[in-house]
Design a protein that fits this description.
It is a single chain. With 86 residues, the chain is mostly beta strands. It is 14% helix and 43% strand. The protein contains one helix and six strands, in the order βββαβββ. Strands 1, 4, 5 and 6 form a four-stranded antiparallel beta sheet that branches. A two-stranded antiparallel ribbon has the order 2-3. It is elongated.
């Protein structure tokens, strides 16, 4: 089993904030989670990391949505080649 590096991240989702419906309910506008994950992955690609989707947790700070979690190092698959002699 190989070891991989992990980093933590917190991503501010600019367009998603809570709005008050009534005294007991606040909601956000609709958003597509896959688009947010793809945006985070795009930013992390330069560091050779990608989001570990099982670690994602939403968090609201002052009604602003943040996505927090961990990203793991991208490992290129090792290929095994066979040489045949004649």
């Amino acid at each position: 089993m190989s070891k991989t590096s992990t980093i933590g991240f917190s991503y501010k989702v600019e367009s998603v904030t809570l709005q008050t419906i009534d005294d007991t309910l606040r909601t956000t506008s609709g958003f597509i989670t896959r688009d947010i994950i793809d945006a985070i992955n795009e930013k992390l690609k330069g560091q050779n990391f990608k989001v570990d989707e099982s670690s994602i947790r939403p968090k609201y700070v002052a009604d602003q949505l943040f996505i927090e979690g961990f990203a793991v190092e991208i490992k290129e698959p090792k290929t095994v080649g066979f040489l045949s002699g004649r």
